[in-house]
Design brief:
This protein is an all-alpha fold. It has helices at about 5-10, 45-65, 75-100, 110-115, 135-155, 160-190, 190-205, 210-215, 220-235, 255-270. It is globular, with a radius of gyration of 18 Å.
Length: about 280
């Protein structure tokens, strides 16, 4: 299967979406959306959901930002930076919604900059160090496939704000998944060295798949996408043996705290600073 065929197949249902990450639209996705929490929706549960999804996005965006000046090519540096900006935008909207409904009135900055690592609820896959480019490709493929499947379901959420955020995110995540899929095929079906590195990356990511599949009921859908891409790339499907613990309950790797220290350093050093 050629990577063009993979693109066309994965793009089904997203035919109107641009393939450029940050160019999926600049209109306010919440314009005109009623921000009142609907009857029957638990505000606490809604806030918790928004925070976990925002934490996933923020931590992933920070890791992608680390590729700036380090990517294999300038074009890939720009693409990865833009994917990170997409995720950062999702995090801002989700944190803002959480602050609206949890009764605290916290801002997006309060969530992002003034919580410790143990308070974050992101999946652990997002916080792992980048490693080489192959690892980042495999991680992005898994993460974007999983997040896209979940956001597609959230477009029907009873909270209209979360549904609107998800609808915008679907367009972005479809590109993220496709970008990663094309690189997975290119590297997996490339040189002996690129194939070896992709196999190693799969082995490194595999233990963290179980945490994703227990979070939301999207396992079959995500596995189908991963199988399609790995077959096209001449790679095996990874066998995952879930690690104990979960980032959703605040159990993180040793890598999250230093990542957050870098992210939060300026804000904590100058908490009252303004533009």
């Amino acid at each position: 299967m050629s990577d063009d065929h993979v693109y066309l197949t994965l793009a089904e249902g997203h035919e109107d979406d641009t393939r450029w990450a940050y160019g999926t639209g600049f209109e306010d996705p919440l314009h005109g959306v009623d921000t009142t929490v609907p009857d029957g929706v638990d505000a606490g549960e809604l806030a918790d959901l928004c925070v976990t999804l925002a934490d996933d996005a923020l931590v992933s965006a920070q890791r992608l930002a680390e590729w700036t000046t380090r990517a294999p090519e300038l074009e890939e540096e720009v693409a990865l930076a833009n994917i990170g900006l997409d995720l950062l935008g999702q995090a801002r909207l989700l944190y803002s919604r959480a602050g609206q409904v949890d009764g605290t009135g916290r801002t997006e900055d309060a969530y992002a900059y003034f919580r410790d690592a143990g308070d974050f609820r992101n999946v652990r896959l997002a916080e792992l160090p980048n490693g080489d480019f192959a690892f980042s490709v495999v991680r992005l493929l898994v993460f974007s496939s999983w997040r896209l499947a979940h956001f597609e379901r959230l477009t029907a959420h009873r909270d209209p704000v979360l549904a609107a955020i998800a609808a915008k995110g679907v367009k972005e995540l479809a590109y993220h998944r496709q970008y990663a899929a094309e690189w997975a095929v290119r590297l997996g079906d490339g040189t002996e060295e690129s194939h070896r590195r992709m196999r190693k990356a799969q082995e490194q990511v595999a233990p963290y798949l179980g945490e994703l599949f227990t979070a939301y009921d999207v396992r079959d859908e995500v596995v189908a996408v991963l199988r399609q891409v790995t077959e096209a790339a001449g790679l095996p499907m990874p066998v995952y043996r879930p690690l104990p613990g979960s980032g959703r309950s605040g159990e993180h790797t040793e890598h999250l705290a230093p990542l957050l220290a870098e992210l939060q350093g300026v804000a904590r050093a100058h908490p009252e600073a303004t533009w």
